[in-house]
Amino acid sequence: MATNTATNPASGNLDANLTVPLLLQKGSQLTKISEKSQKKVVFRIEPDEGQILYPSRKHGLVPIESIKEIRTGPDAEYYCAQFGFSGDAIDRWITIVYVLNSTYRTLHILAPTQDVFHLWESTIRKLYTIRVGLMRSLDNTEIRRTLWERQYWKGADKGGDQALSLDEVKGLGVRLNISFPKGEIERLFKEADTAQKNCLNFQEFQHFVKLLKRRPELEGLYNHVCGAQPFDFAIFEKFMTNTQKSALTSAELRTLFDKYATASVIAGPVLASAAASLIVPPTAPVDSPPIQSTPASTTATPSTSAPLTTTLSGDAPSAVPEASLVAASPVPQAVQAMSLEDFTSFLMGQDNAATRPDSNDMTQPMSDYFISTSHNTYLVGNQLMGVSTIEGYIRALLCACRSVEMDIYDGPHGEPMVYHGKTLTSEVSVREICQAIAKYAFVNSPWPLLLSCEVHCGLVQQDMLVDIMTKAFGSALIKAPLEKHSKIVVLPSPEQLKGRIMVKTKNLYVAAELESIKAHKKAGEAAAAKAAHLEAEPPSSDSEESESEVAVVMEEIGELKSELKSRWHKMRGIPSPSTSSSADLKQPKAKVPMSLALASLLVYTVGVKCRGIDKSEQYAPEQIFSLSESKANKFIQGGVGIEDLIRHTQTHVVRIYPKGTRVNSTNYEPLQYWAAGCQLVALNIQTFDLGYKINQAMFMRNGRQGYVLKPLALRDPHFEKLRKHTKHFLDVTIVSAQQLPRPKHSSGKEITEKSVVDPYIEVALHIPAWSHSPFLPDNKGYDHIPPSDASDGSPTSARTISFSTGPVKNNGFNPMWQEELCLPFDCIGGMLELIFVEFNVKDEKRKDHEALASYIAPLSSLQQGFRHLPLHDAQLCQHLFSTLFVYINIRDVA
């Protein structure tokens, strides 16, 4: 089949990587399949806009960057069979999973022939790969620039004549989210129209864009850093050490410098110009570079039209003609130096990323890690009437969740089913779930996966459940300790359990025995108390009887313990000690409706009931209990209770789950429970709220692997670090933003018929409520929201400190604030990992609406100095072209 490409003057460097067949750009007929219908539809690809388009009354648009997964072949079998297709249909089937308007959606299409199928599949995957690569870092600036130019050129060229008139350029301004001052766009158009034809060809359009994207704040920063000298390695090293707070060695910095610097003879600074006066943030180091100041309350103009004045710390001129070069003493030889373009590339690249990479130590016991955990994994809607499907498991596993949940009941057709009990949720087969888990378990993370099961089915289907899991998971399923014939003293590490799957449910045999022991223990305590009371009285037959009763009870407790140990050894295949007495064998077996085969799967993850967490209660290392958020809140707010909980989680795993009244599947904020040391803090990952964002930010720290090592303070058995309470300020200077996204319709299309946005920035710190006297200085300006718990019906949340800038009027393209925000916070044990900083870009005209874009990260991961923050949508998909330029500093309070 022919794969001719459409001629495009903006093809640039992407054509070597991307070939979009003309047939797919014009459109081809495919069968669109849904639960309600099957119909022929003309689909087409718009490569420059990055969209799949088809006629529809509701949506009809799939943004390439919103795609989560492309399924073909065996990966698409589930839906292919569900819709009644068989034979060679699987070889022509494509399922696209994507997110639109905060909702997961699936698009199923069937190609008429395998040739058409291969054409569509390869092209979509190619487009997807390029855009996903761009979303993972701010590097690849050349591809990013070319994509941007092609996208906006195509959107502006309404007539399709490969030229832009002045009216078309004015229309482009609306789409770029900027309202130009009177006469400004005409001036830029005239400057770019070098051929003086009253229109711009693509090369002239590129020049126009370069003028539009000029960054005077970076020009001012560059000139202040190097002054009249070449930007050589000495200057770069000083900038990195003093301003960027870099921990790299001099040799490492030299390698970084060589990566960006170009060799040239430099007689002075390049373009010693800036848009306005430059000021140093009050909290910055004395030699920190100044940054551009633009009043936020006035209409911001494109940077190209700003007056060119500079205020430097030395005797630099206060006014310089545009694009002029400042004369300096000649440099006698060529030196390796950074140009303004080099410096800009560095500041925007991954080597100057907003966050630092985390340690990936996976050799500690499993109890030493926070573990990404999904609640009600089978649901894709709310927990009262939601749909149960394998999609929930696939999404969770692709998000690197390492603990997923299954509520298992007897199925009507002889096989166990999963659904939410006592609700109107639908059912899904355990067999289908296990097949999906087997396929996706280790796609995004190699570390152990825990299946948290609530088993409500009878013995027959319990045995069938074990058979299904054994066949689906094979050797990955944990059935015995890694070290056979030995008692579990400490939990194994994620490294030791790499690639393995564990099952957790309540072991009813263990539960019954523990309850029996507890009852006998209480009886013994009561008898002992009675005996102590009678000691003061003269000896009698009654007192002798009481002493005899205590002895009998204690003997029974010992026998029960021996029986429990013997039975446990038997299930593990461990020989019983030769000292076992015949009395042990005479004890009646507990009548518990639990399959021994299922009990044998519980090795390192034995579910038990919480009997308390003080020193009087003992749990084996493998025993796990679950607490609702309400129960956990009582421990956390109980003063001594939180210390007991932290101590318990140093050697044992604890699971927290949302309260049952969250019928809309909302989430609590997990950092409260992380601060108590709890590992499995379960969330509804189908709900894109603040709890979801914080959870995703936590596990982005080590590359989204699902395990994060707990802070040392929570692992220290002596609690020394937990006694340390410190106070700090987070100083953030909001400098500028680049190409903010416009609001969108529910269909995914941009809202362009309304006015340009008036953006402002809200910065918030989410802090665990670990102090009854938080650090709240008198100098107001920030907003403080105290923590809340589930007792009053509101969501469990941490406390929040927030601060907002003023708005910049009519400019979402290159707004500049130069506004400093100062946020106080306190910290326990140096655990900055549990404080999260959130940047929200909002529109003053739509304050009650969802943020236009956001960025969230643990405070420990956020690097200081000048950084470009990549901005994300509500589902944490990164916007390809939107960034926020900030200066960050953390100050300690003496």
UniProtKB/TrEMBL annotation:
Coiled coil: none
Pfam families in the record: C2 (PF00168), PI-PLC-X (PF00388), PI-PLC-Y (PF00387)
Domain C2: 711-873
GO-annotated molecular function: calcium ion binding; phosphatidylinositol-4,5-bisphosphate phospholipase C activity
UniProt domain EF-hand: residue ranges: 180-215
Source species: Mycena rosella (Pink bonnet)
Record keywords: Hydrolase, Lipid degradation, Lipid metabolism, Transducer
EC number(s) given by UniProt: 3.1.4.11
A GO BP entry: phosphatidylinositol-mediated signaling
UniProt-listed PROSITE patterns: C2 (PS50004), EF_HAND_2 (PS50222), PIPLC_X_DOMAIN (PS50007), PIPLC_Y_DOMAIN (PS50008)
Chain ranges of the PI-PLC Y-box domain: 598-715
Record InterPro entries: C2_dom, C2_domain_sf, EF-hand-dom_pair, EF_hand_dom, PH-like_dom_sf, PI-PLC_fam, PLC-like_Pdiesterase_TIM-brl, Plc1_PH
Stretches with biased composition (Low complexity): 293-308, 528-541
Catalytic activity: a 1,2-diacyl-sn-glycero-3-phospho-(1D-myo-inositol-4,5-bisphosphate) + H2O = 1D-myo-inositol 1,4,5-trisphosphate + a 1,2-diacyl-sn-glycerol + H(+)
Gene3D superfamilies: C2 domain, EF-hand, Phosphatidylinositol (PI) phosphodiesterase, Pleckstrin-homology domain (PH domain)/Phosphotyrosine-binding domain (PTB)
Protein name, per record: Phosphoinositide phospholipase C
Positions of the UniProt region annotated as Disordered: 286-308, 528-548
Keyword Cell inner membrane: no
